DNA sequence: TATGCACCCTGTAGCAACTACAGGGTCAAG
DNA sequence: CTTGACCCTGTAGTTGCTACAGGGTGCATA
């Protein structure tokens, strides 16, 4: 499989595939006589794993650890669980933070009654946290 | 006010203040005889505006537009309202996306029963989106 | 007077995770 | 024999900072 086919098969940008190789996330594939990369099915499924994990928000380093683990099928899977659980917790924290942000932004946006910038409550609220009702950080 | 005082007064890293000046978000202040930056109260409140807006998740470019607007107090404030509303919508979308992620991650994490990596349902789920119950993207 | 220390300066490079060229080579079809 | 689709390497850009390196300044103390 050439890089273009792998790109279409996994929905991954070609530049991204080369980037993953450069940072050691995907192993370097064989080359054809013309120096084209030639991928196997193992590459395809590894890349699918990476892309899917990225879509689920895991960082490259987390994915690296997860790949290490699945490369060594006899190891205890507790590490994978720990990574996934920690990531879930981070997502939950991020949601809470964004919800606070949303509430504060809703209050701020709702205060604009139109008119000139000098009188705008939105601009006023952005300039001074004392107008806020939550710490939002 | 020297840069260290401004830094303490606004809770902004000194490097960040210089960065804002470099990208034209803060006007270059006067200099002392020793070439030290010397800030006025106008600088201080402008920087507070920037930091507060950043805390609320606005991008630098959005803040630039908001500052342009507040620099011209006679202008109609509708543009500010539009920026803030658009930002609020983005925050809401991000929350929804993260909520989908959280649900999917919760399902995935819940499937691990311990054991070896070869049998791990978490690793399996990460490798193949067909195990997912939502599109989560 | 020297010297220590806190503070300031510029310029550059690093982070994450890509993305986008520039400037070239390869290969099959018409 | 040229056109077009593909592939290659290497480098630089994105966002919003942060962290030096390598210097200068200013004030208090011994
Ligand atoms: Zn308004
Ligand atoms: Zn606030
Ligand atoms: Zn498991
Ligand atoms: Zn999925």
What this model shows, in words?
The structure is a homodimer of 137-residue chains. Chain A has six helices and two strands; from the N terminus they run H-H-E-E-H-H-H-H. Chain A is mainly alpha-helical. Chain A has two domains: 73 residues, Multidrug-efflux Transporter Regulator, Chain: A, Domain 2; 48 residues. The first copy, chain A, has a two-stranded antiparallel ribbon. Chain A starts with a helix and ends in a 10-residue tail after the last helix. Chains A and B meet through helix 3, helix 4, helix 5 and helix 6 of A and helix 3, helix 4, helix 5 and helix 6 of B. The structure holds zinc ion (4 copies). The structure holds a DNA duplex (30 and 30 nucleotides).
Strand and helix layout:
The structure is a homodimer of 137-residue chains.
Chain A: H1 3-10, H2 14-22, E1 30-31, E2 37-38, H3 41-55, H4 60-70, H5 78-110, H6 121-127
Antiparallel strand pairs in A: 1-2
The complex binds zinc ion (4 copies).
Chain A binds a DNA duplex (30 and 30 nucleotides) through helix 2.
How would you summarize what this structure contains?
Two copies of one chain form a homodimer. Chain A is mainly α and 137 residues long.
């Amino acid at each position: 499989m050439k890089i273009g086919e792998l790109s279409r098969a996994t929905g991954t940008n070609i530049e991204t595939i080369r980037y993953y190789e450069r940072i050691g996330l995907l192993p370097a594939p064989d080359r054809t006589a013309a120096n084209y990369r030639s991928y196997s099915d193992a590459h395809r499924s590894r890349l699918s794993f990476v892309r899917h994990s990225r879509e689920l928000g895991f960082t490259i380093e987390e994915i690296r650890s997860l790949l290490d683990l699945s490369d060594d099928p006899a190891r205890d899977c507790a590490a994978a669980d720990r990574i996934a659980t920690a990531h879930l917790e981070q997502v939950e924290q991020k949601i809470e933070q964004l919800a606070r942000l949303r509430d504060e932004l809703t209050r701020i946006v709702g205060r604009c009654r139109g008119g000139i910038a000098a009188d705008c409550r939105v601009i006023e609220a952005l300039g001074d946290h004392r107008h806020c009702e939550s710490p939002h950080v």
